[in-house]
Structure formats: C-alpha cells, structure tokens
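ok here's L-threonine dehydratase:
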Amino acid sequence: MPQNYIRKILEARVYDVAVETPIHEAPFLSERLQNKVLLKREDLQPVFSFKIRGAYNKVSQLTEAERARGVIAASAGNHAQGLALAAKHLGIKAVIVMPKTTPEIKVQAVRARGARVVLHGDAFDEALAYSQKLVEEKGYVYIHPYDDVDTIAGQGTIAMEILRQYSDPIDAIFVPVGGGGLIAGIGAYIKYLRPEIRIIGVEYEESACLKVALEKNRRVVLSQVGIFADGVAVAQIGKETFRVCKQVVDEVITVTADEICAAVKDIYDDTRSIAEPSGALAVAGIKRYVEREGIEGQSLVAIDSGANVNFDRLRYISERAELGEKREAIVAVTIPEQPGSFRKFCQTLGKRAITEFNYRYHDASQARIFVGVQTKPDSDTREDLVALLEQKGYPVEDLTDNEIAKLHIRHMGGGHAPNGEHEIVYRFEFPERPGALLNFLNKLGERWNISMFHYRNHGAAYGRVLIGMQVPKGEKAEVESFLDLIGYHYWEETNNRAYQLFLG
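and the structure:
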C-alpha cells in the first residue's frame, strides 16, 4: 500500500487557488437507478476542472532556482489552464505548448491566465515533443499532467474532502481515468482509511489504457486513441500512476461515446451544469455498473471532473444522448415501393414516435428507409422493436451501434451510385484546422477518383469524414500505403451494412 502518499496528500498545498468543492446528490438519477448517486463537483473549480489541484501542488514545491527558470507543459485542455493559473498565482513564467487543433476557447482561457501559448503540430504527441525541445533549449521545468508524485498527491485531496463531507457509508467511488493521476491519488487515500470502499476506474472504450495495462500486468501503448473524450485521450497509463493503481483500483469499466453523452444529459438534468465528455465518464460508469450488478440502495460517488466543453460540441452530444440512454433505435427497413406503404409502416409502429425518416427511391419493387424510432430502455426496447417489425414481415437491420449510420448516413442523401464501380469506402478523422482537407486532397493527387464525400463539424478537435474512392482491382494495398503516409486515422468501411444498404 502506497502509505507514503497519505502524508503528502494531507500536506498538499492546493487551497491557495483551489476550492473545496461540494458533494451534491443527483436526485433524478438516484431515483431512476434506485441507488444514491453523489456527484463530487470538481467542475466548480476556478478553472472548471480538478487539474488545478495537482498543478498548483507541484509548482508550489519547486525551488527558487526552478521557479526562476519558468515552467512548461504540453496540453490541449485542463492541465494547461490549471498550470497557467498556478504559475500566475506564484509569479512564475509559464509556457504551454498546444496542438494547432486546440479549440480557440481553450487557447484564450490559457492566455487569459497569464501563460504564453505556443501552437505546434496537429496532435498532442507533436506538441509534447516540441515542449521537450524547449526544455532542452530554454531550461524550463516540465510539469507533467499526471505522472508525478506531487501532482498525484494534489489530486488526492479530493478523497480527503469526500470522507470529511460525507460520513455515511460509501459503497464505491467512480473515477474517470486518462493518465491515472486522479484515480491514483483518490485510491491511495481511500484505501488507506476506508479499504472497504471500492475504487472503480471509468475509461472511454477508445482510450482504455489502464484496463489494458491491468489485464496484461504491464504498461501498454495503445495503437490508436479515440479523441471524443479529449480530457482522457491518453495512449499509455503513467509509470508511477500504474504502480499505485495496481494496488488501489478494484476494477475498470469502459463506456461508449453514446453512454457518455447520455451521462452529460443526466448531470445537466440534476444540476443544470454541463460536463465535458471526460467529466461525465464516472456517471456513465455508475449506470453501466448498476445495470451489470443489479444493485439497489447503495451509495455511489462519481467524480464530476470538469466542464471545459466547447459550445459547438453540444449539438453532437444532444444527438447521441438519446441513443446512449437507449431511448432511440436506428433501423434500416425495407418496405414495398407502392402508395400507402409508409402509412402502413407507421401504423405498425403504433404509438412509438418516429424521430427520423430518410428515404430515396431504390427500385420499382422495394424502398429502403433509414428510420429513427423512440424506444424505452425498460419496457419497449430496440430489441422489441426489431422483433415486432420482423413479425410483421419487414426485412429489418438494427443500425443503432453502427458508427457510419450515426455519424454520416443519417445526414446523407442520394442513394446508390449507378456508375460507382470499384468503390472503396474509408472513414477518417481529420485534424479540425484550416487546410486539413486541402492537404489531404493535394497529397492524394488525381490518381484515384473520389466518388463520395461527407463531412460534418462536431465542434471537436477532429472532424469525421466519410470518403468513397474508385480504386481499380489490385491497387487497394497501394492506396492504404499512401493513406498511412498522409498520417490521418482511418478505417475501411466498404463492408459496413449501413453503406451497403443506402449508398453502396
């Protein structure tokens, strides 16, 4: 047990700039889940995130000589703001290297707190490499966002407050996990004083570096990291944080983007505050845990870790919340191409509301429709809907979990391409900055024809793009080698059923 952390947490200097955040019960969510759900409101910190605790504790313990050199970090979000405020309070020069894809609101927030912002690269790894170069050239002190003893101890003060503020029994504390600093600090303190309380990490399924590390009993670098929950988009758990987590974490739960969006809505309904995706992870984890275990009457604490969300992202979050709450199903249905078919289909649905309906003529005998239908997670599920349609003789496919359907198909029209021979389909994540698309097209050149293209801004650091390319037989490997050189994340989706049904 990492007992050496207890004294460090008790002596941590955080309250010069951080505040003791309250614990609020979430009454609507508690009633729905039949358990007491408590939110530790770290979104109420001066920088709207818990990161100020660890950053200030670390910077406050630098020597005079280190302070004179100035501090630096690579960050696209909350650590940047926390370090900027900490340095400003202590009168220390701070430099923050941020990717060029960082939303302007976060760049402005860091500058407003007195730090100098250097924009470099399209991704965090490039910003990190450049920050290390500046350390060598300028002599700055690098302040790590999570893998540091003093940073971990600063985050651990959250656990100290939880036990002081809530004296009744606690069954489990759910903690969002990125690099592991938050859960290591909370877990070390809780397991020393109240070992019966379960410490449960919650990770976005596309950046689950702690879960993989615990399964393999070693730190692993993820080959690809999803950036929807950007506050926890970390490819490898920290070295020191993993050492602590192995001793204090009881389990790790992973959740989907849709479940995170639903959790953002849950927090809003109970608090009228808007969590960022990583800030809502713990609530999403509680919901998954309660459903899995079938528990009732327990006290479950979620760390609401931050509220630094771009306003533009709320469109995407609201779109996906109903799916995450299992209150909407997306299905592909084939109906006869004749007058009255749509009315008959609606009669089959009964009182279920249609949330979306997309249709284009397919052929003279049948029509394929893309339909969103309102469902209920407890009494009228999407499985019930599919079973009903099959019983009534409709060919139906459930697309609710199909990313292409949710990100692209529902916004596209046009139907099948009559001359789309040799079409291969790829889904991309482009860095959301001016020139990214032109850069792609310039590098692609004129060798392969683009036969389909869809892009929609989601207010995130990366744009989602669906592209169809006409590639002669035998040239696919050459295309993918070329795409690897361009460097954007991509997935082939030629065999995706949503594409085949509506566009292929």
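+1. The mean pLDDT is 89.
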